[in-house]
Amino acid sequence: MLGKRARKHLSQLGEFERGLIIGLKTAGWSKRNVAGQVDRSECAVRNCWEQWTREGTHARKTGSGATRKTTRREDRRIVRQALVDPTVTRSTIRADVGVAIVPQTISRHLAEANLKSKRPFRALPLTPEHRQLRLQWCQARSMWNVTDWLKVVFSDESRFVWGTDDNHVRV
């Protein structure tokens, strides 16, 4: 429960919680009692109450947070570059966009578009059970001759797309 409580203390006060704080403080409750009731810090209660007494409102201020470094158009350009060339690096994208942004910003924009990088497997991860089953299969067919193997049809599970896009994220 401690982790959940700590996360709640880091989140913003909701509209209902702000109204509840104002109501309880107006009713004469102490800062400590109000903080215990809404399960928030005394500092959050004090800041909310001070805003109410100073400005007469408990609404959050608009425009809070960091200013945007990229426009919506530049955001789309970042995603489009990653779609066109899946092997492009973040530094290449940053140089191409021409805006001074950190690599984490590019990663965040790509993650919002469900584009995530993955490392390809060098080999299939086989469990000991898989290895045992493969060995048994091979031992059962170790004495087969050419005519026996001619009766077997081999196929793979490769996908071929004739269209332009199959909507899959590439590695």
Task: Kindly describe this structure.
It is a single chain. The chain is 54% helix and 0% strand. It is an all-alpha fold. It is built from nine helices and no strands.
In short:
This is Transposable element Tc1 transposase. By secondary structure, the chain is mainly alpha-helical.
Topology summary:
Elements: H1 2-10, H2 15-26, H3 31-38, H4 42-55, H5 72-84, H6 90-97, H7 103-112, H8 128-140, H9 146-150
Helix pairs in contact: 2-3, 2-4, 3-4
Domain Transposase Tc1-like: 75-140
Protein name: Transposable element Tc1 transposase
Pfam families: HTH_Tnp_Tc3_2
Task: Work out the helix count.
Answer: 9
The biggest beta sheet, please? none
Q: Please, what is the average pLDDT?
A: 80
Q: What is the N-to-C order of secondary-structure elements (H for helix, E for strand)?
A: HHHHHHHHH
Supply database-style keywords:
171 residues; mainly alpha; 0% strand
